[in-house]
Amino acid sequence: MGRSTPGDRAFTIGNTLLLALFAFLCAYPLWYILILSVNEGTDTSLGGIYWWPRAFTLDNYRVMLSDHTILGAFWITVKRTVIGTFGSLLVTSMVAFALSRRELPGRKLLLFVFLFVMLFSGGLIPYYIQLMNLNLLNSFWVYVFPSLFSIWNMFVMKTSFQSNIPENVVESVKLDGGGYTRIYFNIVLPFSMPLFAALGLFTAVGQWNDWFTGAFFVNDLSLQPLPTYLQRMLSTIEATHMISASQMATANQTQLYNPDAITTKSVRMATIMITILPILFVYPFVQRFFVKGVLIGSVKE
């Protein structure tokens, strides 16, 4: 390799600065919310806080965690994310494996139907009527059952199975007397773990951030997930709706925090951080699967 020219060096420096600026613009809003969540609310209202908390406190988190409604919403979100993610990967991958087998009767017709349904939705009202007929409205399972199958993920998995599952291995299992169930669990799953990790993360993020289902299909406040609770909080103006009177009384009695230092804005920031951080901690554990999972199917033998 020859020595780099001044133009190459200038491009490298400019590219580095541009990417650094982009990374800063992506990370700073999260950092800003964090410092506001650990700063006294009355001090925050004075302005001038940009980089570090000026009056550090954890009272905002104490206020938020003293509300049993928030804790219940948090566990609803955790349960729907775990059950929904694993259930979706299992059901979707089974359908994808079946459609990846060319000997499946009616395979082309089924693929056309799935593609048509993915491109042309029936709309919100028919969807609501269907959930009502299935008795899923105002139920925890409205978060799980409708999301068990993803057509988009099915097409991704089907393409991966066709490209990366060696046909000679499948045939050898058949010669040994193994059926499709054994092929799926002994061959498909081990070969596709990077793909499942990548799609599983996207599915989990979608489950965790979904506020729409809880807002429109669930009336029971005890069944609403954390994003729906946060959406209601951010869309409400009155302070009494942000921090309930009973919560304030309980916190004052137990001396959980200094009420003069708490504002609705500071509690909002703490709630946003609690909503973001759990799913953010998942990324480092599956990051190593991303490149391999995304590139699966792009290289053929």
Automatic annotation (TrEMBL):
It is found in: Cell membrane. Residues 74-286 form the ABC transmembrane type-1 domain. Coiled coil: none annotated. The chain crosses the membrane at residues 12-34, 73-97, 109-128, 140-157, 183-205, 267-286. One of its GO terms (biological process) is transmembrane transport. The keyword Cell membrane applies. InterPro entries: MetI-like, MetI-like_sf. Keywords: Cell membrane, Membrane, Transmembrane, Transmembrane helix, Transport. Its main location: membrane. It is a multi-pass membrane protein. Gene3D superfamilies: MetI-like. The keyword Transmembrane applies. One of its GO terms (cellular component) is plasma membrane. PANTHER family: ABC TRANSPORTER PERMEASE PROTEIN MG189-RELATED-RELATED, POLYGALACTURONAN_RHAMNOGALACTURONAN TRANSPORT SYSTEM PERMEASE PROTEIN YTCP. This is Carbohydrate ABC transporter permease. The lineage of its organism: Bacteria, Bacillati, Bacillota, Bacilli, Bacillales.
